[in-house]
DNA sequence: GGATGTAA
DNA sequence: TTACATCCA
């Protein structure tokens, strides 16, 4: 994705996990994918592969990843993507091509028996198959973790929920949460150590921009939905927007153009989101059913999930997560 | 994706 | 300051 350049614009600071509390609207796709790739990389495939060859590494990832929220008094709400935007077609296509390249390399690595390369490439060729989507939802259901279905971008829906006050933070690694108007975004929720807090208001104040101008600057730089203008990076974008006011004035002054700039603008300004969701943050996980689902029904190695289930039991079942609601 | 080095 | 290549995870 081309918009890591937004990192140079955003006001981001590390925040002690102990200072975080409340509800995090998590971009589920993003979160699952991170755990899926790390699980595949560090776990023997026997541990999560069924007799017919179906891989459900996501189940291990979920059981290992959830305790991180619970142990810090944070309730995750998993926001799943709806249909992908047409505008994102280019991005999806280039990822597909990238994945095919890795798959070819994987073939070669397998022929050569290069175990290190195989593990690396396997983690890069993962995708969220329908089995993974379905079993993830089912396991989250058994663990009573709230799930929200976004009409389009999960990121946009999560930002919307924070703006409405139904969640305190968006949880995502993507910087475009800022463009969707997320007041606070937590990053690095899947890594060790403390998360990063990305602050929209501070970002706008820092550069003396409006939300609309930030979006326009991002369009000049390039987003998941458009190419951006060659030669414009974060510095130039802000300078130009400040000088000329908005996207069209900048383009006119430079004699440049961007493809469907108006649609990308619209997509960030008024994203397709819904108010039709509800969730309960007093979690009552059915750990026995969850264990049976993961280890019984899907045959995942108990060793891989035992500690994760224990941690969930210790933090949710025994102490209760709902004390602050 | 992140970090880093280099060329323009 | 930006683009691009490369290594790591």
From TrEMBL:
Residues 21-315 form the 5'-3' exonuclease domain. Binds 2 magnesium ions per subunit. They probably participate in the reaction catalyzed by the enzyme. May bind an additional third magnesium ion after substrate binding. Residues 317-325 are annotated as: Interaction with PCNA. The keyword Signal does not apply. Keywords: Coiled coil, DNA damage, DNA repair, DNA replication, Endonuclease, Exonuclease, Hydrolase, Magnesium, Metal-binding, Nuclease. Residues 141-209 form the XPG-I domain. Its EC number is 3.1.-.-. One of its GO terms (molecular function) is 5'-flap endonuclease activity. It is an enzyme of class 3 (hydrolase). Gene3D superfamilies: 5' to 3' exonuclease, C-terminal subdomain, 5'-nuclease. Mg(2+) 2 binds at residues 174, 176, 224. GO terms for biological process: DNA repair; DNA replication, removal of RNA primer. Mg(2+) 1 binds at residues 27, 81, 153, 155. Residues 1-102 form the XPG N-terminal domain. Residues 92-138 form a coiled coil. Its cofactor is Mg(2+). NCBIfam families: fen_arch. Interacts with PCNA. PCNA stimulates the nuclease activity without altering cleavage specificity. PANTHER family: FLAP ENDONUCLEASE 1, FLAP ENDONUCLEASE FAMILY MEMBER. Belongs to the XPG/RAD2 endonuclease family. FEN1 subfamily. Structure-specific nuclease with 5'-flap endonuclease and 5'-3' exonuclease activities involved in DNA replication and repair. During DNA replication, cleaves the 5'-overhanging flap structure that is generated by displacement synthesis when DNA polymerase encounters the 5'-end of a downstream Okazaki fragment. Binds the unpaired 3'-DNA end and kinks the DNA to facilitate 5' cleavage specificity. Cleaves one nucleotide into the double-stranded DNA from the junction in flap DNA, leaving a nick for ligation. Also involved in the base excision repair (BER) pathway. This is Flap endonuclease 1. It comes from Natrarchaeobaculum sulfurireducens.
